[in-house]
Amino acid sequence: MGRMSAATPSSEPTARRVSARVGSISESATLAVDAKAKALKAAGRPVIGFGAGEPDFPTPDYIVEAAVEACKNPKYHRYTPAGGLPELKAAIAAKTLRDSGYEVDPSQVLVTNGGKQAIYEAFAAILDPGDEVIVPAPYWTTYPESIRLAGGVPVEVVADESTGYRVTVEQLEAARTERTKVVLFVSPSNPTGAVYSESETEAIGHWAVEHGLWVLTDEIYEHLVYGDVTSTSLPAVIPELRERCIVVNGVAKTYAMTGWRVGWIIGPKDVVKAATNLQSHATSNVANVSQVAALAAISGDLAAVAEMREAFDRRRRTIVRMLGEIDGVVCPEPEGAFYVYPSVKGLLGKEIRGRRPEDTVELAALILEEAEVAVVPGEAFGTPGYLRLSYALGDEDLVEGVSRLQKLLAEARD
Q1: ∠ CA 216-221-222 to the nearest 5 degrees?
Q2: What class, spelled out in words, does domain 62-299 have in CATH?
């Protein structure tokens, strides 16, 4: 008889089958809520989903037409440079100057498979094990997970509705240690819709320069601001920060192109080169057809964007008004993106249809089951006691969904 074989995979403990690094990463909460809502709808339930940050508009026709033509062109049937089509990188540089007043060279651009890959690769390019990243909370679910995957340590700094969900320099300084290497800056913000003023942006930028910190700034919602509010690009207003600043952006939100998967990094040449090397081994080039579609998007005017923004603004005002009519809900008016982030602390512990939800995970589950409305609990964004609702869905669904919330939550009793 031969030697006994090692334990078969099926007999190994789960902890030994999956690496600690990847095993510690949780599923995207927003995508999980969206998937559950879509599964229930497919099963015939009239679920209305406020979970995913996805515009309900189709991608503009001129972008789709550019992609169709690209499909017919044999040169796009082959590998292209891992860092992106040269013409797209040049267009991203031109678009950045046009929209942000920030002049960069195409060699400072890396085209990525969506914003998530951009964020991970940016952190992977500058973090060493144990480096700390200050992460303002509420935060988008992917930020801390990307930091951990890159070997870093996320350090949360919490802001609440009393400050419009914006952190101060004093809070950032209190979180800074000798291990701090990066501060994350997101404006307009997912999940809160908060937008930092130019003076607030400058103050954070000067603080980062003073302490020799890197800044990763996510500008994916740059064009989705409302009223007289403007979005300020950090490296545009703080030139001395540019050698330690990485900008993440993409076409997903501005042009209703979430499924096309095109994002990008802008940063110092050595960092972009390092991230490009990483991508060359991870995924190689972004799909060429998607890159050509992105080229058409950012090279065109912003007329389609203005039309979508008008619709989002209308929905923003509607959802804030309707949520504000619910006892126990406090809903600040967002200034950007397409989310509201109401506090529902006043509802926790109250009886609703025979149950007393003690946290927003339980409350969100109750809302899905009883009202057939999908929302994301604040625990996913680092701040229990809140819910995130995306208003990037049709007007009728929005009103119907919030009306269901009003009816259900009006039953809350001590």
Answers
A1: 85
A2: alpha beta
